Amino acid sequence: xxxxxxxxxxxxxxxMPEWTGLLLLLLGLLCAAAxxxxxFSVFGVKARLEALEVQLDEIQSEIRELALSIxxxxxxxxxxxxxxxxxEPPSLGGSRLPSHEAxxxxxxxxxxxxxxxxxxxxxxxxxxxxxQR
Length: 133
What we know:
Order of helices and strands: HHHHH
Helix content: 40-55%
Keywords: Coiled coil
Number of helices: 5
Strand content: under 5%
Coiled coil: 42-69
Protein name: DUF2339 domain-containing protein
Structural class: mainly alpha
Largest sheet: none
Region (Disordered): 76-133
């Protein structure tokens, strides 16, 4: 009991009742415990884990497809029904790009904006401050 009273008096805030320091200590401990026990979804870990799970599912499906194509190599060589019906579309101009020149991937850079050669001057009043008398 004496140890408890010594703790309360050591935590007392001058000008306040003796129990206010102990109350502030308990509130601080409660906040620290809440921070430690906070679910990880608040920090954004849950969303990142779900995104990783989706990526893993995609990778697993690709691995399954590759494993099936390795097991049955004739199925991978057989043309599908779409490729058998495919015909080359007619070209519009009849000219094709040379094989050594690749098509542009990025759009062309626009020219810089045109500014007038001589900027118009603004008429500003002249101030004589302070006036000489």
